[in-house]
Amino acid sequence: xxxxxxxxxxxxxxxxxxxxxxxxxxxxxxxxxxxxxxxxxxxxxxxxxxxxxxxxxxxxxxxxxxxxxxxxxxxxxxxxxxxxxxxxxxxxxxxxxxxxxxxxxxxxxxxxxxxxxxxxxxxxxxxxxxxxxxxxxxxxxxxxxxxxxxxxxxxxxxxxxxxxxxxxxxxxxxxxxxxxxxxxxxxxxxxxxxxxxxxxxxxxxxxxxxxxxxxxxxxxxxxxxxxxxxxxxxxxxxxxxxxxxxxxxxxxxxxxxxx
Length: 259
Ligand SMILES: Nc1ncnc2c1ncn2[C@@H]1O[C@H](COP(=O)(O)OP(=O)(O)OP(=O)(O)O)[C@@H](O)[C@H]1O
Ligand SMILES: [Mg+2]
Prior knowledge:
Layout: E1 11-22, E2 25-36, E3 40-44, H1 51-58, E4 66-71, E5 77-79, H2 89-92, E6 95-98, H3 110-121, H4 126-139, H5 155-167, E7 173-177, H6 185-201, E8 204-208, H7 212-218, E9 221-226, E10 229-234, H8 236-241, H9 246-256
Parallel strand pairs: 3-8, 3-9, 6-7, 7-8
Antiparallel strand pairs: 1-2, 1-4, 4-5, 9-10
The chain binds adenosine-5'-triphosphate and magnesium ion.
The site of adenosine-5'-triphosphate (ATP) has 10 residues, from helix 1.
């Protein structure tokens, strides 16, 4: 375990005062996040607290009503009512998302799923993209699955394809939304092992997870959200072992002692 102090790493992403409502329901109230290069931030919190919405806002899949997102200390994308997808487009080029339910295209083979983004969105050279995709698939133990369809794979294998698909985009930031929560328990380990290797390699990531033991192992910082606000944040050992806020205490206790 090598936790680094979030204060010391060069910032890769800074999100300030993110706000998002769906109709009358304010789902994100004023979210600030600072992620250093090479750091892993684990985002935890009860169902409905806004975790997925945060990831979607960072990725430009959702347009916040207010706030700013900046990468590498570069110019911030500032949001206001009326901000368009086009204005947030730059965010889509910086991060890649790994979804809870894999979201693979069912009518495409494993390889086609992986090369789709680099070819269609990034307009990169086909031969180069295929070579990279094959090497990434080999890395996660799926070289021989390249011509199979998602339905022919186990959930754990599909999720490893989901991770390869994100890596193939060469993003600066990986966003994982409960990547193992749809998996049978015996398949969880294979996926967590891949995520741990990526963290050890220095990938910067935001990981939404209910696997607290894993979060303690890989994260440099844990952020606990409830009802659209960050309630508590800090070093994993501190947030998980000696949480300060009553809501954090209850949440962590419930997850660690489910019965
Ligand atoms: N597109 C949408 N339209 C309306 N409401 C939405 C939409 N997306 C999310 N919400 C609402 O926003 C709130 C936060 O949702 P979000 O998915 O971010 O929570 P979460 O923390 O990821 O929960 P979970 O742990 O169950 O995945 C929920 O009340 C949800 O119903
Ligand atoms: Mg969610």
